[in-house]
Amino acid sequence: MTYGFRATALTGIALSACVLVSACSSGNGESIGSSEQSDALPVVANFYPIEWLVQEIGKESVSVVGLTPTGAEPHDLSLDPKSITALEGAKAVFYLGSDFQPDVQRAVDQLPEDIAVSDLLTSPGVTLLDAPGDLGKESLTGNKDPHVWLDPSQMQAMAVEVAAVLGSIDPARAEQFDSNAKELIRKLQSVDDELRGKLKDCEVTTIVTSHAAFNYLAQRYGLTQIAIAGVSKDEQPDPATLEEIARDAKAAGVRTVFFEEQLSPELSETVASEIGANVDLLAALEFDPEEAIGPGQDYISVMKDNAQRLSRGLGCVD
Ligand SMILES: [Zn+2]
Fold first, then answer.
1. What pTM value is reported for the model?
2. Ligand 1: centre distance to CA 284 (Å)
3. How far is the CA of 225 from the centre of ligand 1 (A)?
4. In angstroms, what is the span from residue 29 Cα to ligand 1's centroid?
5. Which residues lie closer than 8 Å to 313 by C-beta, 6 or more apart?
6. What domains can you pick out in the chain, each with its CATH number?
7. Rounded to an integer, what distance in angstroms lies between the CA atom of residue 119 and that of residue 123?
8. Number of helical H runs and strand E runs in the chain
């Protein structure tokens, strides 16, 4: 537990620095954030999909700082002192619990009560699935799968919660947050409709993925996920498990094995070549798509692209 102790000590140091420097809470969040608006609420979000959600609802009224640096893998994130400072200077913090990012969880548990801290996995309307446990260690609290953002209907539920929390700390703009959330919910609905439409009639209903990120998407659209690695990407399969995955994929008629951007496609390629399948990209959105894929990309465009690739890879009737 050396790791936990270190994080706690770090938070302690950052806290004492804040006591000594009185301007701490008002200045630091903005210096990291992108917004120049002086009356923007300093808000922290744990990683890309939640940053996007908060930005779309808060628009120019929030200054969002993300905790997961560009290109970093979010599951095993370890917070740097800059992130701790941003957390302490925030008016609201949005994150996903269930041990998705244990370091984030430890840090938010120590924040003072006047900061609105929201674990979006507990939002009304968010229904959690069990973490798939057949690929080695089951480390998540209660074994819940944190990848809710890959189901647009769960994003809708989280959008309502984000608007409610922002409205509670800034009642004067509550109506604006609500109306932004409604607009976002409409966009998410169109993504949901598109996925449903594209995936309603497919020759193959099994998706083979790099890591177990797509269970919510699979469940929503009548698919079954076979994941090469576990919920966290460091849960790598042994050769016998890999062999079993290839056998199951072949039995399910899989012709495309999906891999994720910024992850090594090696294991996906191994499975694909074993069963004579192609490989294609499927984005789990754990990285900022502007950085990972290209400019102008966001949650909506990437999910629409996912719908296209899934439809093609599964031989769906459009
Ligand atoms: Zn993941």
1. 0.85
2. 7
3. 14
4. 27
5. 204, 207, 255, 256, 258, 278, 280
6. 2-192 (3.40.50.1980), 196-313 (3.40.50.1980)
7. 7
8. 12, 8
